[in-house]
Fold succinate dehydrogenase.
Amino acid sequence: MSELNAKIPVGPLAEKWTTYKNSINLISPANKRSLDVIVVGTGLAGGSAAATLAELGYNVKAFCFQDSPRRAHSVAAQGGINAAKNYTGDGDSVYRLFYDTIKGGDYRSREANVYRLAEVSSNIIDQCVAQGVPFAREYGGLLANRSFGGVQVSRTFYAKGQTGQQLLLGVYSALNRQIARGKIEMFNRHEMLDVVLLGDKARGIISRNLVSGAIDRHSAHAVVIASGGYGNLFYLSTYAMGCNASAAWKAHKRGAFLANPCFNQIHPTAIPVGGPNQSKLTLMSESLRNDGRIWVPKDQEDAKALREGVKQPNDIADADRDYYLERQYPAFGNLVPRDVASRAAKERCDAGYGVNVTGQAVFLDFHSAIYRFGKEQARIKGLDTDDDRLITRLGEEVIKGKYGNLFQMYQKIIDQDPYKTPMMIYPTTHYTMGGLWVDYNLMTTVPGLFAIGEANFSDHGANRLGASALMQGLADGYFILPYTIGDYLSQDIGTGKIPTTTIEFEEAELQVTERIHRLINNKGSHPVDYFHKKLGTIMWQYCGINRNKKGLETAMEEIKSVRLAFWENAIVPGTAEEFNEELAKAGRLADFLELAELYAKDALFREESCGAHMREEFRTTDGEALRNDTDFAHVAAWEYKGEPRNALLHKEKLVYENIEVKQRSYR
């Protein structure tokens, strides 16, 4: 075990990023034209990085496994993006955003990176407005803000419930401009299957053309991993079905340390599981908790009647409802952080108060908000404030303007009108805070291999605050990586083109080809999804909202058993020389089955509860997460040593010089 060097600049926290930018090595425009960069993933992080690097003059190769960068999972982000602009005049600041993020992550993230993120957040909004992103605006034309969980200010900029889509279209326009100029060579429907190292430096990748099956070599002076998170370990999640961990896991197997792999987020506001054959869950944006009130019946008999269909939600009188978040956490109410809301929902359902057929759901109710907004609009318009039908209609119009597409989506999936009856929600896997370990430069432990966005671990600690994912992705891509990668590439001005004919490229390609042939020639009896569902069940049961030592030890053994069974008994139809989605899924699941065991090992090692990660052995007297700052105030970074259970631990000590570390409380 060794201590990791994060390469954090010296000096006061608020001056570190400025000092860093003033002291790095620069590259002239003429020299940038001779340097190549590979970007794997073209969501918000990868797309903004590729576009910015190309704008600066670098030659960029960008890869995505979808048919277009517009398909990146960033498109699914709903509620908004944070920035410390203090437009509402409610006391926000760069420091407040920094503090809320550190506290929200339960003091398990790096001060310097988080402060830098808060510092550049305002630039992101200006950039996106200039691109034409249609953020919501107030009556006078100023950009509107709303609140998200874990904060007491309004700093979230949004475009209805489709913020990710609108931001991605802005990135896509910047990307297309550089493609048209010839500065970006775009590889759609290509999947990265390995990183190639020359000496100790990342110098390229091996990719597979998902349409033709062709295996290709690509070289560059640096490689950027921007491939998102690994939440599909759980099978059922809010991730798109294609989201996977393969790029990051291949980087890990080539020497990049994987940090805090057990840190994943459980989102409290997803549509509940509907049955055993479901393959995906749908997110209902956290922004809904601005106006929706979460409740279950106070009486278990009412809950039973709701489950059996004897009663409907509106049959339960307000006095007979338990608005449990407002009761338990009066200071934040329904806007507590995601981990707190998720655990509270699970506790109520486990206690017998769940309200859907499975007993695994709580209500998210907008009746109060509709009435409040309707009254306000009636007063503004000089209409009858005693006409309940009018007030309801006016209130529904306001809610539709703020959340209309989310309500429409819910109605299409559940076939219930959320304007008339409360939504049903339940926690599910949503985001991974763990990822490839990176230093202040966003470089992994492999020189020349960078990781940005959700693919790295750096900013969110043990729990991500809502609307911070889009902020981190665009901050990394637009405003941080272009500086830090330039400092690294300044050493390569005279290197020249990297050849792909070396023995290292040949060996990497051979290993990729052999693995594909093994999968194709494996004549088992069960499809890939059979094993993925088994893995998901294990992960949710033992590594989900609550964990314990015995369960995690069981998980490690059962995951290994599923992995061995997969390689012995999976069937992959078709050939490797064609479009073969089952082959692509098989390769991704093979990586998940290795990563999952390391996930369980990391969770077992971390003998504390922090953020979204409740170890049942470590709780406060009132049932909250109990951290162990003496033994675990560090980043756990794992080095690949063959079998996941043999991974070697390295630590980065987390030092807090600018905030007071204390037990989190949202009461």
